[in-house]
Amino acid sequence: MAKQAIDALGHVDLLVNNAGICGFADFVNEPIDMMDRMIAINYRAPVILMREFSNLMIDNGIKGAMINISSSRGTRAYPGDAIYGGLKAGLQRSTESIALALAPYGIRVNCVAPGAIHVNAFHKPGSLGECIPLGRMGEPDDVAQAVMWLASEQASYITGITLRVDGGLILPGMPEDGMNNWGAPFKPASASSSKDNQEGNRK
After folding, report:
1. 3-state class of 74 per DSSP?
2. What pTM was estimated for this model as a whole?
3. b/e for 85-100, b at 16 or more Cβ within 10 A?
4. CA separation for the pair 44, 86 (Å, rounded)
5. Which candidate in 54, 70, 71, 72 is catalytic?
6. Would you call 43 a catalytic residue per the annotation?
7. Contact at 8 Å (CB) between 71 and 85?
């Protein structure tokens, strides 16, 4: 595939590994065939593509960038995502080592990790968006803009990172139940309630 791309385009200096599949299940009942398919598509394929493209880029003296699409689930564990989240975590970790290996050749390697992205009618952006600190779900263009920036010369000194595009979804302190209304203004305790609390503490 890498050789075909260079033969067709004449010059390839950017690889974006965007293909992937989701699969969530109770771990003890996770189908083996689903595990194998996710391993093949979500991890094995991008690593092999990076290997093949890097060899051709090095042989042709081409500098450039490789960007893997990961997930915020590669950082935070959720029930039912042992395989999907684990593979995304593995891809992020492999990205770091591959970035070290390819840096001497001027090839940068990074990850973009989307959070909750509104990609189809299944998602309800209103209700889920209220649980995200920035107050909305992400859109595909949010991810695309991050990829374009990492691929550009503006990011020429950046390699081996995972850039989260999640509106703050998995920041430390974000509640797992998503019950907080992050868009509501902070309401300090009233003077009377503070006085009552102080009196209660003295009792």
Report:
1. helix
2. 0.82
3. bbbbbbbbebbeebbe
4. 13
5. 71
6. no
7. yes
**CATH classification of the domain holding 77:** 3.40.50.720
As a whole number of angstroms, the distance between CA 44 and CA 59 comes to 23
Rounded to whole angstroms, what are the CA distances from 57 to 9, 43, 45, 154, 199?
A: 13, 21, 18, 21, 72
Distances in Å between the alpha carbon of 63 and those of 57, 95, 121, 132, 187? Answer: 7, 17, 40, 38, 52
Backbone dihedral angles phi then psi of residue 35, each to the nearest 5 degrees: -60, -50
Q: Which amino acid is at 91?
A: L
Q: What is the pLDDT of residues 90-127, one digit of tens each?
A: 999 999 999 999 999 999 999 999 999 988 765 565 67
Domain that holds residue 80: 2-202
Of 70, 88, 190, 192, which one is the catalytic site residue? 88
The pLDDT, as a whole number, for residue 199 is 45
**Count of domains in the chain?**
1
- Pairing relationship of beta strands 107-114 and 162-165 according to DSSP bridges: parallel
**CB-CB neighbours of 116 under 10 Å:** 18
d(CA 78, CA 174): 14
In the residue annotation, 195 being an active-site residue is answered as: no
Where does 115-202 show beta strands of DSSP type E? Answer: 162-165
* Cα–Cα distance for residue pair 69/140, rounded to 1 Å: 12
Task: Give backbone dihedrals phi and psi of 46, rounded to 5 degrees, phi first.
Answer: -65, -35
Annotated active-site residue 203? The verdict is no
Tokens read off for 112: 């973009």
